[in-house]
Design a protein that fits this description.
The protein is mainly β. The protein is about 15% helix and about 40% strand. It has a 4-stranded antiparallel beta sheet with strand order 3-2-1-7, covered by helices on one side. The chain has a 3-stranded antiparallel beta sheet with strand order 4-5-6, with no helix packed on it. The longest helix has 14 residues.
Length: about 110
């Protein structure tokens, strides 16, 4: 299970598919000896709630446990987000988790 310090949902529109797909872009704050890091899941298949956390189940079987108050972009994620925007232009956007539901995931 992955528990990022900050996270955002990325919506990706792909003309090859009928529906968009969604990914979690998580960020972890590093300390003095280790720097900040990021990780993106394989694609969200299901969203559950557990108290103050969202549980994002991924295509690869991974689970991201994300605190509802940590939905934000930090420097650890900004570099990869900028790369995605350059590569995919208007096909990617950051959305709020409340803007999707399990039916939209198409699974």
């Amino acid at each position: 299970m992955h528990t990022p310090d900050s996270w955002v949902i990325i919506k990706i529109d792909n003309p090859e598919y009928d529906k968009p797909y969604y990914k979690v872009l998580g960020g972890w704050s590093g300390g003095y000896l280790d720097g900040d890091s990021w990780r993106m899941n394989s694609g969200i298949t299901k969203i559950d709630r557990e108290g103050d956390f969202y549980l994002f189940n991924g295509l690869s079987g991974s689970v991201y446990k994300c605190h509802k108050n940590a939905e934000t972009m930090r420097m650890s994620q900004a570099g990869i987000w900028n790369s995605l925007k350059e590569k995919y232009n208007e096909s990617v956007e950051i959305i709020k988790v409340t803007d999707i539901n399990n039916e939209e995931l198409g699974l």
